[in-house]
Automatic annotation (TrEMBL):
Belongs to the DHNA family. SMART domains: FolB (SM00905). This is 4-(hydroxymethyl)-2-furancarboxaldehyde-phosphate synthase. It comes from Borborobacter arsenicus. GO terms for molecular function: dihydroneopterin aldolase activity. Catalyzes the formation of 4-(hydroxymethyl)-2-furancarboxaldehyde phosphate (4-HFC-P) from two molecules of glyceraldehyde-3-P (GA-3-P). Keywords: Folate biosynthesis, Lyase, Schiff base. Pathway: Cofactor biosynthesis; tetrahydrofolate biosynthesis; 2-amino-4-hydroxy-6-hydroxymethyl-7,8-dihydropteridine diphosphate from 7,8-dihydroneopterin triphosphate: step 3/4. GO terms for biological process: folic acid biosynthetic process. It holds the Pfam family FolB. It is an enzyme of class 4 (lyase). Gene3D superfamilies: 3.30.1130.10. It catalyses: 2 D-glyceraldehyde 3-phosphate = 4-(hydroxymethyl)-2-furancarboxaldehyde phosphate + phosphate + 2 H2O; 7,8-dihydroneopterin = 6-hydroxymethyl-7,8-dihydropterin + glycolaldehyde.
Length: 395
């Protein structure tokens, strides 16, 4: 499951994070850059104050790519007693040498290499991290000017990062001015952790103190599993984006219709030879009937995000050529039905460049009621019942 990392600057903020059940405490000075480091004495004091209640990571600062300099700083931070040390890797011909210089330290502390989505991140460093014994890798943003991770790397590109990390045995993390609406968009990509700072500070900005209510709102968006009275306690209503059955979802609240209309993308699609080797405009219309969590929605905890639908379409399209409009519609429907709150979805796919009007297909898929109560969402989605297909001319 995806864990929540909260960046804090001192003991008071650490106590707020612990009280709000975050999973990892991250020590940094946000006034000193993306990976601004706290004084080592402060790191040591915070480790003592947390006293093993949660794992702790600490950053090394925005350092130049000089192997000896980086190794010395990592040794210093590791000696303060943290569980993870995060090291920034900026574009440089020496980046791989810096990683290799840290290889001996990987046996002493869990190293996390940080790449920056706004600095042309080199995914070729990921195998180097694995070779050198790093524990994980992370995508962040270097410039904190209000732009977010998803402004520099769309969801369709992030699965490459998480997939490579999984194949290499590296823990994967995503950060970079993430906000509450980003959480349901990123959870389906299955990172091992999501990192937050600015979103935890309410309206005040990342350099001010964190706010307990803001931390609780982010925490509630990320499925939480913790031990209570000797057994696992899971809020299944919050597991929707990770493919679990809603369990206690209350159908008495009824459903809402969440829709995406007139969403046009260039798509490599078509069975004819003249349709291969180039894109054509395709319009998507998607409507999902979604179980309500509450009759008084107030924030992202209470809704199904239409961004999840659009991100899914972009990701499916990015996979390459699709022979049939029917197949494309089925992929989109299956993606939407992965969320167990979705009871029914209608998908319309129209090719716009084959004549004076649109041609394509409209399908409706419905979750099997008995399976939606008992099965994980992916399994229930696989068992979705086909209801109606409407076609234009040949796909």
């Amino acid at each position: 499951m995806t864990k929540m990392l909260a960046s804090v600057t001192g003991t008071e903020e650490a106590e707020i994070a612990i009280a709000c059940n975050v999973d990892i405490i991250d020590l940094k000075d946000p006034k000193s850059g993306a990976l601004g480091a706290l004084p080592t004495a402060d790191v040591r004091a915070l480790v003592a104050a947390v006293a093993g209640r949660l794992p702790i990571s600490a950053v090394c600062g925005d350092l130049p790519m000089e192997p000896d300099l980086i190794r010395a700083k990592v040794e210093e931070v590791a000696a303060a007693g943290v569980d993870y040390v995060k090291v920034g890797f900026f574009p440089s011909g020496k980046a791989a040498d810096c990683a290799r210089a840290l290889s001996p330290l990987a046996r002493q502390v869990k190293l996390v290499g940080v790449l920056f989505a706004d600095k042309e991140p080199d995914f070729g460093l990921l195998p180097v991290f694995a070779e050198c014994g790093f524990h994980g890798a992370m995508l962040d943003t270097a410039v904190k000017n209000g732009s977010r991770l998803l402004d520099h790397m769309p969801p369709a590109g992030i699965p490459d990062f998480t997939k490579i990390c999984r194949e290499l045995g590296l823990m994967s993390g995503l950060s970079g001015s993430l906000e509450a609406p980003d959480v349901p968009r990123l959870l389906p990509l299955k990172p091992d952790f999501l990192g937050f700072r600015g979103a935890l500070c309410g309206e005040t900005g990342r350099t001010d103190g964190i706010d307990a209510e803001a931390v609780r709102q982010i925490r509630a968006l990320i499925p939480e599993e913790r031990q209570a009275e000797g057994r696992s306690s899971v809020d299944y209503r919050l597991l929707a984006a990770r493919g679990y059955s809603p369990g206690a979802a209350d159908a008495t609240h009824g459903t809402d219709k969440i829709f995406v209309r007139d969403f046009v993308l260039p798509v490599e699609i078509g069975a004819y030879s003249f349709e291969h080797g180039h894109t054509q405009k395709v319009r998507f219309d998607v409507t999902a009937d979604v179980l309500r969590v509450t009759n008084t929605p107030e924030d992202m905890r209470h809704v199904f995000s239409y961004d999840v639908i659009m991100d899914g379409i972009r990701t499916i399209v990015a996979h390459g050529h699709v022979q049939l409009s029917e197949a494309l519609a089925e992929h989109v429907a299956a993606h939407v039905l992965e969320d167990p709150r979705v009871m029914r979805v209608t998908v319309r796919v129209e090719k716009l460049e084959l004549g004076p009007g649109g041609v394509g297909v409209e399908i409706e898929r419905r979750r099997a009621k008995e399976q939606s109560r008992a099965l994980p969402a992916k399994a229930a989605g696989d068992a979705a019942i086909p209801v109606r297909v409407q076609k234009g001319q040949a796909s």
